[in-house]
Every structure is written in C-alpha cells, then in structure tokens.
C-alpha cells in the first residue's frame, strides 16, 4: 500500500481488501480476514475516515468480527464503541449491535451479550421515529415486571384472531425491524441466565410485530411467548396454538436457520404439554437436523 500514492487507487485497493476480508469471514478463515481488513485500513491511510467513511467503517467492522472469531475478544471489544460512534445512522448502529451480541454469545459471554443488546435497544428507543411507545426490556426483571408487560400485551393479542396472524403484513418501519433483530439475537443469552428477561424479550417481539408487522423474528417471538404461557401461566392449549402459529410464520419466510431455533423451542418447551410425545420429539429432531445443515 505504501507504494500506491493516488487516492483513487488507494480506495480501490482498500475495497479489494474488504471484499477479500468478507470472503474470508464467510469461509471461517478469520485470521486471514483480520489481515485483509488491516491491510485495507492501511491502504486508506490516516484520512480514510474523512475521505471514505463507509469503506473505513466496513473494514473496521470486519476486523472486529475477525478478532472475536480468532479469540482476541478484548481487541475486538475495543473496536466496538468507536465503531458505534462512527456509524452513519441508527440502522448501522443496530446491525453492529446485533453482530456483537452474537459474537459475545459465541464466546459464552452471556451477560456481555445482554448488556450490549439492551443498550442497543435503548439507543433505538431514544431515536424515536416509528418506535414511539416501545418499552425496552429491563435487566433482571422481577415477577411483577413480567406480569405487567404481559398485561400490557394481552389486549393487543386479544384484538387479533389467531388465524389472521399468519398473514400479518410485512413490517415497513426499519427501526422496528432492527429492534426485533436485536431482541432475537439477545434472546438465547437471556434464556441461559435470566428466564424472566427472556420472557419479556419474547413479549417485546410479539408487541412490535402486532404494531408494525411481521419480520423473520416474529415466529421466534410467538414461539417464546408460547413457552411463557405454558411454563409460567399453565395456559397450555393457548401456548400450543402460539407454537403452531410460530411454525407457520417461519414456514412463510422459509428461514431454515431460524427454523432450527423455533423447532427446538416449540418441540422441547411447548407442544409436549398437550400433544403426544412423538410430535414433540419429531420437532426437536427436525430442529437438530436443520441446525446441522445451516
């Protein structure tokens, strides 16, 4: 890069390194991805953030992801807040937050994942826009908080025929869709360390879906709400209906990777209350096989 002096050529070299880093990440060659990302940043030089901010951001994001994946977690974390400050808009911040949550979970850092997810949701809520009235889940909710959130959601649920929810319109509000992605990314960490928080995350996804329309997270939210109704409220028939709805919603979007999660939730924690064990077992096995394939 030091031999290239033309600014346009340096940007082209940086873009080529970014493409190489992204291909390496897709191939799980994280060490190579980190090297390409750093080479791209070096090609841009000290003025990269002023001259080509989108390219500089993408290179730093790729480096952050690669560092996490090679086990240099603290080095990766050190890039996160500066990247949040340099993000072009709230959607870019939300996507970066979603990435970090997943990387923290990958390393078993469930509490870090939850803290990042909740902070990202708080930023989205403060941004306003089409998210007016969105209640961000709180860390360590007590039983009264969970009950209050369900009581607030119940009238919205009652206003919809269950059969009609399968044809919820697609969400058009970008901030709502971004919030649902962060909620879904944070859900697994909450299920590991704070079941009540997981319940409120599922409720938040369902509430956003009812108000703004469906995203790929909607089926996951209804599956989790079914788990809450079965486990915490003993409304097992209603829980089963929501579990079946979750399966149908995900079939509508055709997302096999997410189907693995939903099949596990519904099979292991919902349908066994009211259906033969064989049905529950089959869903869990299907989820396992989908997870291996995706």
Describe the fold and architecture.
The chain is mainly α and 294 residues long. Helices cover 76% and strands 0% of the residues. The protein contains 14 helices and no strands. It has helices spanning 7-26, 30-44, 48-51, 53-69, 73-86, 90-106, 110-127, 143-158, 174-193, 195-212, 218-232, 236-253, 256-269, 277-293. Helix 11 (218-232) packs antiparallel against helix 12, helix 12 packs antiparallel against helix 13 (256-269) and helix 13 (256-269) packs antiparallel against helix 14 (277-293). The longest helix is centred in the first third of the chain and has 20 residues, at 7-26. The protein is elongated.
Largest sheet: none
What percentage of residues falls in helices of 4 or more residues? over 70%
- Tally of individual helices: 14
Coarse shape? elongated
The gyration radius over C-alpha positions equals 21 Å
String of helices and strands: HHHHHHHHHHHHHH
Helix and strand layout, with pairings?
Blueprint: H1 7-26, H2 30-44, H3 48-51, H4 53-69, H5 73-86, H6 90-106, H7 110-127, H8 143-158, H9 174-193, H10 195-212, H11 218-232, H12 236-253, H13 256-269, H14 277-293
């Amino acid at each position: 890069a030091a031999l290239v002096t033309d600014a346009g050529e340096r940007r082209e070299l940086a873009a080529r390194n970014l493409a190489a880093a992204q291909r390496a990440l897709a191939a799980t060659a994280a060490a190579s991805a980190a090297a390409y990302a750093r080479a791209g940043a070096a090609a841009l030089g000290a003025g990269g953030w002023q001259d080509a901010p989108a390219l500089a951001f993408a290179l730093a994001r790729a480096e952050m992801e690669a560092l996490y994946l090679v086990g240099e977690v603290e080095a990766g974390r050190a890039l996160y807040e500066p990247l949040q400050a340099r993000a072009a808009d709230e959607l870019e911040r939300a996507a970066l937050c979603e990435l970090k949550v997943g990387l923290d979970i990958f390393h078993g850092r469930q509490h870090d994942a939850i803290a990042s997810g909740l902070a990202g949701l708080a930023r989205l809520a403060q941004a306003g826009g089409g998210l007016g009235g969105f209640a961000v889940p709180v860390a360590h909710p007590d039983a009264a908080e969970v009950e209050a959130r369900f009581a607030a959601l119940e009238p919205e649920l009652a206003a919809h025929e269950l059969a009609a929810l399968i044809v919820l319109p697609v969400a058009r509000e970008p901030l709502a869709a971004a919030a649902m992605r962060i909620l879904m990314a944070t859900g697994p960490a909450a299920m590991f360390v704070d079941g009540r928080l997981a319940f409120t995350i599922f409720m938040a996804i369902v509430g956003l879906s009812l108000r703004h329309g469906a995203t790929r997270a909607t089926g996951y939210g209804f599956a989790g709400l079914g788990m809450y109704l079965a486990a915490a409220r003993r409304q097992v028939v209603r829980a089963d209906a929501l579990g079946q709805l979750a399966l149908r919603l995900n079939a509508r979007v055709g997302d096999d990777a997410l189907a693995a999660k939903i099949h596990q939730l519904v099979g292991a924690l919902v349908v066994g209350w009211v259906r033969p064990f064989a049905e529950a077992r089959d869903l869990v096995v299907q989820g396992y096989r989908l997870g291996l394939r995706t």
